[in-house]
Design brief:
The protein is an alpha/beta fold. It has a domain of about 70 residues. It has a 6-stranded mixed β-sheet, with helices on both faces. The protein has a 4-stranded antiparallel β-sheet with strand order 2-1-4-5, covered by helices on one side. Strands 11-12 form a two-stranded antiparallel sheet. β9 and β10 form a beta hairpin.
Length: about 280
């Protein structure tokens, strides 16, 4: 495996608010280097706010985010982007830009002051287009794409940036199940082959449990549990964070925890619990 350098990346004492509405207050978190971290939680739990703060999109009212023990606000935009790649929840492309042009912009932090593209830039952009199944979309304007195609194009741009840390806010939004798995497999492969630290917000607990090395569960703007999936994805944690009763069984494909929601219409009975073989 060819590893990228490990970077320390953590937040301490974060307080983040939208006007007078405080979303996160007194939060500390450390992102494990070289691992896939998935942040989960119910709507309005603060997970996207946390990711946007780590990404320098939001400035905390109190506390700080530290990259290699430096406050991220002390980095220039280009310097920060050489290390940290960001895919926000609803990115907006300039009008008329093609997929190939969008992906090429991912190389900007690595280019000189005059912005001249090198053969390496072209190669890396092409690899990103190929990895995300966007080759046939390369000459199309981004605004002409379907939601799923557009999402893949943005992921390609993030991959072209070739960061050591990649932050993604719900990267599987708009994707059908097949493309969800392809994107998550791609991010998992990027982590395993290059050592890229991946941090993403996901809604699907089972996808989180399958792909994460480290899971962070949020509720009410606080971290209520964090660690490896088997220790974190429990019936108690699901009930606390999602107000949901669930049975936790073993995913027969990945061996990770699998959450089976319970309901009054389908209560859990001894006969309904799958037996291990």
């Amino acid at each position: 495996m060819t590893r990228t350098p490990d970077h320390s990346f953590r937040a301490e004492g974060l307080r983040v608010a939208y006007d007078s509405h405080v979303v996160i207050d007194g939060l500390d978190i450390e992102i494990p280097a070289g691992q896939v971290t998935v942040i989960v939680g119910a709507n309005a739990s603060g997970k996207s706010t946390l990711l946007r703060t780590l990404a320098r999109i939001l400035a905390p009212a109190q506390g700080r985010v530290l990259l290699d023990e430096r406050d991220i606000r002390s980095y220039s935009g280009r310097e920060f982007a050489r290390v940290v790649g960001i895919l926000p929840q609803s990115p907006i492309a300039p009008e008329g830009i093609t997929v190939a042009e969008l992906v090429a912009r991912g190389r900007y932090p690595h280019q000189g002051w005059f912005g001249r593209r090198s053969s390496d830039d072209d190669r890396i952009a092409l690899e990103a287009l190929t990895a995300t199944d966007c080759i046939e979309l390369a000459d199309r304007p981004v605004e002409s794409l379907s939601g799923g195609q557009r999402q893949r194009a943005w992921i390609a741009m993030a991959l072209a940036q070739d960061p050591d840390i990649l932050l993604l806010d719900e990267p599987t939004t708009y994707l059908d199940v097949t493309h969800q798995l392809e994107v998550l497999d791609l991010l998992h492969s990027l982590n395993r082959t290059k050592g890229t630290t991946v941090v993403m917000v996901l809604h699907d607990l089972n996808m989180a449990a399958r792909y994460a090395d480290h899971v962070v569960v949020m509720a009410g703007g606080a971290v209520v549990a964090s660690g490896v999936p088997p220790e974190v994805i429990t019936a108690e944690t699901v009930r606390l964070a999602f107000a949901l009763d669930a049975h936790i069984m073993v995913d027969p494909v990945a061996g990770s925890p699998m959450v089976v929601p319970l309901s009054r219409a389908h209560p859990l009975t001894e006969a309904s619990v799958p037996q291990a073989h």
